[in-house]
Structure formats: C-alpha cells, structure tokens
Amino acid sequence: MKNFPGVYETIKKNGEKYYRASLTFRNKHISLGSFETSLDAHTAYLEGMEILHNKNITIDQFDSNKTILKFEKWVVLINFRENNIYIKTPIYIKKNYIYYYINQEEILKFDRDDLFYYSTHKIMKRNGHLFVADYGMQVNIASRYGIKNYAVCGKDYLFLNNDEYDFRYENIHIINKYVGVARQKGKNGRNCFKTTIHLNNNFVIGYYDSEIEAAVAYNKAVDKARMGGYDKNFEVNYIEELNMEEYSNIYSKVNISTNFLNHVKNSSKRLLLETS
C-alpha cells in the first residue's frame, strides 16, 4: 500500500480497515475525519492544507460536489486560518459578533460574549427549533435569550431587525416574559396585562395594571388549580424583581376570576365523586 502523508490506517471493531486524515498547522494537530480509502483520506489532507495556506479560499466557495471535506470542517479551518483560534464547532469570528453555520444557507449571528458557549456546545436543529446538549439535556437556545418555549415570534418577542437568525442580545425584544401573561390595550386605550391559564380550555384569570401583578395572578391560579386536583406540570413564573415579602403581599391582594375559581371548585367536587 502506498503511504500518503497525513493518512493513518485504523481498524474497526469488526476488523475492517478505514483511514483517518489529519494535519498540523501552526503547531495545532487537526483531525479531518475518517474515510473508506487511503486515497480519499489523502485527498482530504491536501484539501485541508490548501484551505489553510490559500487565503483566496472562502466559506462561500464550498461545493459539496467538488470537495471531500465536510462543510463544518471548511468553516473550522478557514476561521483558524483567519483568526488564529481553533474552534471545533462551525464558528467564524467577526470583529463584534460571531457567525455560527448550521449549514450554508442558515447562518446564526451571536454576540462575541457567546463565543465560549457555542465553541463548546454544538447546535442541532429539529422541527424548526435549535438545541444544544447541556448537562445531558436538550436545551432550546432561545431560552438563553429570555424566550420561553411556548413563546410566539411577533407576539411574545421580536427580532428588531426582522432577522430571525440574529440572536445578538440587542436585537431581541421580549414583549411577554411571563407565562400566561400578554400585554394588550384595555377598553380605556391604556396598556394592561391579560392573564390566562389552560386547564381543559383557556380561562381568563384577570386584567392587571402591571406585568408583575399579572404574573403573580397566574401563579396564584396555578396553586388553586393544583389544590382543585389538577395534576398537570404547570410552568410558573419566577419574578426576580420581588423579594419574598413583596411577592407574598401582591399574592394575597391580587384578585383572580370568580368564574375560574368556580370551575376549579366544581372540578374538585367531580373528582371526589369519581374517586369515592
């Protein structure tokens, strides 16, 4: 067998041979991937070396029909060549922000402050949602920016420049940051906050002058629902602006819908009859 530079023969568990390609650039050893033949591995090695030494090669020039390296590796190599920082995830660093390439068409933009996080967390896409694996769990990256899992773009939050791929903090405006709370115009034309909760159907809990009152009202409704026998994994609001005394004071004074309370009471009675 001909010995190609940058190519290493390896054996699978089933005894089959495969070949790994790697190179060294600026004293950094870089793995380029695994290949079925030594010639493919060597081709990957040559392609990697060409990318690292030819500054005319850009990310936009990637063509899957003409290249053997994966697109992610192209991004990694070009970023290393241009910025002298080796990052395993497909990030390209700009002066004031970073690009994260999901693929050639989908390019996310983040603040430089997020560089360390996304250099150690690979972004995955499923059903239109973007996730990272964090402590063994799949975490929607939107939650990092105060966007709740249930939130609707245009209603609960906005991308100020209308670019849904731009996750820079200055570009994200949270409209409704609490569960069950939505800002709306009252009958007098002033802004108010409507609180709703979903049991069997949506129930209006009330209308409130402040967002915090509305959020506390939702939590109070959750407590009433649980006491009424609703065994549901309710998400509740954490209100960091309030200490325990302030929260308790608002909780005791805030009113919630009589219609909702009667529904919970009647549901509780039915549950008792069914179990007796």
Offer a concise description of the structure.
This is AP2/ERF domain-containing protein. This protein is an alpha+beta fold and 276 residues long.
The main pleated sheet reads as: 3 strands, antiparallel
Query: How many E-type strands?
Result: 14
Order of helices and strands: EEEHHEEEHEEEEEEEEHHH
Number of domains: 3
Average pLDDT: 91
Which class best fits the helix and strand makeup?
alpha+beta
Poorly predicted segments: none
Helix content: 25-40%
In terms of DSSP E residues, the strand content is: 25-35%
Shape verdict: elongated
Q: Radius of gyration from the CA trace?
A: 27 Å
Please report the distance between the alpha carbons of the first and last residues.
Answer: 81 Å
Give the strand order of the largest sheet, numbering strands 1, 2, ... along the chain: 1-2-3
Organism: Acetitomaculum ruminis DSM 5522
Protein name: AP2/ERF domain-containing protein
Description:
The protein has helices spanning 38-53, 71-83, 115-119, 211-227, 244-253, 258-275, and strands at residues 7-11, 17-25, 28-35, 91-93, 97-101, 107-111, 123-126, 129-134, 137-140, 157-159, 172-174, 181-185, 191-198, 202-208. The N and C termini lie far apart (81 Å). By secondary structure, it is α+β, with helices and mostly antiparallel strands. The protein is built from 6 helices and 14 strands. The model has no long low-confidence stretch (mean pLDDT 91).
Detail the topology: elements first, then pairings.
Elements: E1 7-11, E2 17-25, E3 28-35, H1 38-53, H2 71-83, E4 91-93, E5 97-101, E6 107-111, H3 115-119, E7 123-126, E8 129-134, E9 137-140, E10 157-159, E11 172-174, E12 181-185, E13 191-198, E14 202-208, H4 211-227, H5 244-253, H6 258-275
Antiparallel strand pairs: 1-2, 2-3, 4-5, 5-6, 7-8, 8-9, 10-11, 12-13, 13-14
Helix pairs in contact: 1-2, 4-6
